[in-house]
Specification:
Distance between the termini: 14 Å
Bound molecules: zinc ion
Number of helices: 8
Radius of gyration: 19 Å
Shape: globular
Largest sheet: 5 strands, mixed
Structural class: alpha/beta
Helix content: 25-40%
Oligomer: single chain
Amino acid sequence: MTHLIAGVETGGTKVVAAVARADEPGRIVDEIEIPTTTPDEVGSRVRAFLGRHAGVQHVGIAAFGPVDLDPDSPAYGSVTSTPKPGWSGARLADLVDGRPHTIVSDVTGAALGEHARGALVGIPDSAYITIGTGVGVGALVDGRPFSDTAHPELGHIAMRRHPDDDFDGVCPFHGGDCVEGLAAGPAIAERWGRPTRELGDVLDRAVAVEAWYLGQLVATVTYAYRPQRIVIGGGATKIPGLLDAVREASVREIRGALGVGHPSNQLDTYLVPPALGDRAGVIGALHLAAAHAG
Ligand code: ZN
């Protein structure tokens, strides 16, 4: 019998589950997409989906978080503190009915997907930054998650203020003292009083302020993980002109501290958009499962 594996990506608005052969994680044989309602509802539908496929050996889970990944912790495998109603304390193992599974953060899953089949193919050390309803960072070392027992929480790093920005910020923990509070999608929308897709006459100013903060984040990710390439994705990065502005801001931020030969000086190849769009997470979860399937 052909061994099967499954990938589950839990996102803020939707959950995607897919099944593939263990020796061909790139070829999805069945898939469902369901809205992220309550853990009970999502769990019953994911379990029913997995139940239709006999012989699923291992499930890779890419989960929004924060998620406790420490096997010695009593809260292992659960979502810790999230503003998403009903999900604080939810146990991800319950989604897969006790099948063998491996959990990573959603953005680490996206990094694994891009590494398997997208913009990070052939890049051993890399990172994925997502700017959406929150700010997340995943890092891969030698193509594997930077740590098996914790994931980075760089959305909350402190920021130097843009000189013209007095916005209060939206982080529930830090207000305007962290990158998520100042630069995630909801911060952009609230600062400018309109959706990120409709910035209109404030576009240039919005791009300048956003790039100021994201340049600092890229510099921090660069210093911490020394990636050869960084993917930057998420809804807010679709703002016209933002990618080039962040590339320039990150070079200004790093100011040559890593030498002129460092990959961060190669603007077009160091900081790149995702190749897989919002498919990266589930593809990464499938490859994660394949890597762990006996
Ligand atoms: Zn924060």
